[in-house]
């Protein structure tokens, strides 16, 4: 039997690919010379034939982009296979583009995933226009009714923190890679709001779902490439993890979102209303009954649940994992946090959200962890809806924008020695917390993170409770795990183990 194109052995396949690239490349001289308008931001280096700057981006995107910004300025253009991207760097330029021109850049481009899920303009993070506006507004209003930004939510988080600490205590100081435990805990918080229930740390269904989600955020690194070349999906051996990525998203849609929507629809009990899904369904029914125009429907609900579940998990747990790692590297910082807790709260009673203003050093560590780790090196890519000019450059309609968060969090013009982990940068001489306006880990503008207040509570309550109860030590004395990251949609530390030693033993 003859092999089809997609069944060829990998070497042959790659050779054919190379020939196709070269042929198109030679034919595309014209495309190369006229890829972006002259008055839009300059290229940092000449784009290569056909692929543009695609292969000039090394595996460490952050470093390459820092280099390009240094050489070119806060706004530069890139060409990815003929598609024009503008990279936005630095706080001042972020504000100019995402606040002053918010309306022109609030669109997000459709991605390869939406195509494969056959989900067009659904949910929050991947939708546009009236659909995005309504889904975002409804979601925020429901989350508020569950205490977003209030003590009600803090109590929910605290309960989960207690379970987390008890699980850590059970280890009796044995080394642990805390990734799964942390991610399940954080995920349980948003999960308890969305579906009205939490899962046990040993639950096989939930632990698998959460680990798969972690894999998806890693595979996400290939999303821009897959969106440019959707046919990579068919490459034998799933070289770009495209099929795995799609199947994880389908699994979340099906076994989590849809299954829980159906369960809640069938549930007649009084507990029914105590979750996000039930509130959404009731608001949706009300709109339909009143004959009001609405984008609220089941497909949107499925996508919204996925957005909240994914966006609300690895971002927060990634920050906690970085915090644990920094505490191993900077034991003096760890000790200082502990001493502050002992003197202002004590070591017996549980720390609550009301203690937040009395623990400035801990707050500074939370902020420095977010700044230094910068778990979202890029905010959501945008597409220019309407042409505008910023900082003397034209942003043509249809151009794509990459908001480079790393350039803000690690800007040497704002932060002294940005590569150093130094919580004191967020304290004044009197030890009071300061809030530099350039500190924007949740981005800014119309699409600013909608879970900001929830995430801030989570980070404060997890960090404080961990240090109050445990001393953190590396797995091996005198051998620290590296501060290297796994690059993906969320930058998490490489796997490492540490020991949680119960204090006051
Ligand atoms: C430390 C934790 C978190 C960080 C660092 C973070 C960061 C971000 C960033 C940078 C964006 C992109 C904003 C933009 O494109 O301008 C974003 C969007 C988003 N975040 Fe978060 N986030 C965190 C936690 C959460 C939580 C807990 C939730 C859920 C309750 C959440 C839900 C969302 C959603 C739904 C969006 C899309 C907003 C839109 O497109 O309108 N995030 N987040």
TrEMBL record:
Gene Ontology CC entries for this record: cytoplasm; membrane
Short name of one Pfam family: p450
Classification via InterPro entries: Cyt_P450 (IPR001128), Cyt_P450_CS (IPR017972), Cyt_P450_E_grp-I (IPR002401), Cyt_P450_E_grp-I_CYP2D-like (IPR008069), Cyt_P450_sf (IPR036396), Cytochrome_P450_fam2 (IPR050182)
Subcellular location: Membrane
Positions of heme binding: 449
Transmembrane segments: 6-27
PROSITE patterns: CYTOCHROME_P450
GO terms of molecular function: heme binding; iron ion binding; oxidoreductase activity, acting on paired donors, with incorporation or reduction of molecular oxygen, reduced flavin or flavoprotein as one donor, and incorporation of one atom of oxygen
Domain of life where this protein originates: Eukaryota
Gene3D superfamilies for the chain: Cytochrome P450
Keywords for this protein: Heme, Iron, Membrane, Metal-binding, Monooxygenase, Oxidoreductase, Transmembrane, Transmembrane helix
GO biological process entries: organic acid metabolic process; xenobiotic metabolic process
SUPFAM superfamilies: Cytochrome P450
Cofactor(s) the protein needs: heme
PANTHER family xrefs: CYTOCHROME P450 508A4-RELATED, CYTOCHROME P450 FAMILY
Family, similarity comment: Belongs to the cytochrome P450 family.
Protein name in the entry: Cytochrome P450 2B5-like
Gene this protein is translated from: LOC106070555
């Amino acid at each position: 039997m003859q092999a089809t194109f997609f069944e060829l052995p990998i070497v042959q396949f790659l050779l054919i690919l190379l020939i196709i690239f070269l042929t198109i490349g030679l034919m595309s001289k014209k495309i190369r010379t006229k890829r972006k308008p002259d008055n839009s931001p300059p290229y940092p280096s000449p784009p290569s034939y056909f692929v543009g700057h695609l292969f000039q981006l090394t595996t460490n995107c952050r470093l390459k982009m820092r280099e390009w910004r240094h050489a070119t300025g806060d706004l530069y253009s890139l060409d990815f296979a003929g598609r024009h991207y503008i990279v936005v760097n630095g706080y001042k330029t972020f504000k100019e583009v995402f606040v002053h021109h918010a309306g022109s850049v609030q669109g997000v481009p459709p991605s390869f995933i939406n195509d494969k899920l056959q989900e067009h303009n659904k949910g929050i993070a991947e939708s546009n226009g009236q659909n995005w506006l309504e889904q975002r507004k409804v979601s925020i209003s429901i989350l508020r009714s569950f205490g977003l930004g209030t003590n009600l939510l803090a109590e929910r988080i605290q309960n989960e923190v207690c379970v987390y600490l008890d699980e850590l205590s059970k280890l009796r100081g044995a080394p642990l890679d805390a990734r799964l435990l942390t991610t399940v805990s954080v995920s349980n918080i948003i999960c308890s709001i969305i579906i009205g229930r939490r899962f046990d740390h040993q639950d096989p269904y939930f632990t698998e779902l959460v680990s798969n989600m972690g894999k998806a955020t890693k595979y996400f690194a290939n999303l821009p490439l897959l969106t440019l070349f959707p046919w990579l999906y068919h490459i034998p051996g799933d070289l770009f993890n495209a099929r795995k990525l799609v199947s994880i998203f389908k699994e979340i849609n099906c076994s989590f979102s849809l299954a829980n929507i159906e369960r809640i629809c069938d549930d007649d009990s009084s507990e029914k209303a105590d979750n996000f899904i039930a509130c959404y369904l009731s608001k949706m029914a009300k709109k339909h009954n009143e004959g009001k125009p609405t984008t609220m429907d089941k497909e949107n609900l499925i996508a919204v649940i996925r957005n909240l579940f994914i966006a609300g998990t690895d971002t927060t747990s990634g920050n906690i994992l970085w915090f644990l790692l920094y505490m191993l590297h900077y034991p003096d910082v760890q000790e200082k946090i502990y001493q502050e807790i002992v003197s202002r709260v004590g070591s017996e009673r549980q720390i609550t959200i009301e203690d937040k203003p009395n623990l400035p050093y801990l707050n500074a560590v939370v902020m420095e962890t977010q700044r230094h780790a910068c778990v979202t090196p890029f905010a959501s890519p945008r597409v220019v809806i309407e042409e505008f000019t910023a900082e003397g450059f034209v942003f043509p309609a249809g151009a794509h924008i990459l908001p480079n968060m790393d350039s803000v969090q690690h800007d040497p013009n704002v932060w002294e020695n940005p590569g150093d982990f130094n919580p004191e940068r967020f304290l004044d001489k009197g030890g009071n917390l300061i809030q530099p306006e350039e500190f924007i880990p949740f981005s800014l503008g119309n699409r600013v993170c909608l879970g900001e207040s929830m995430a801030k509570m989570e980070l404060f309550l997890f960090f404080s409770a961990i240090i109050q109860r445990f001393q953190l030590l590396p797995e091996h004395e005198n051998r620290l795990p590296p501060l290297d990251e796994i690059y993906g949609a969320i930058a998490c530390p490489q796997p490492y183990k540490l020991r949680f030693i119960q204090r006051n033993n």
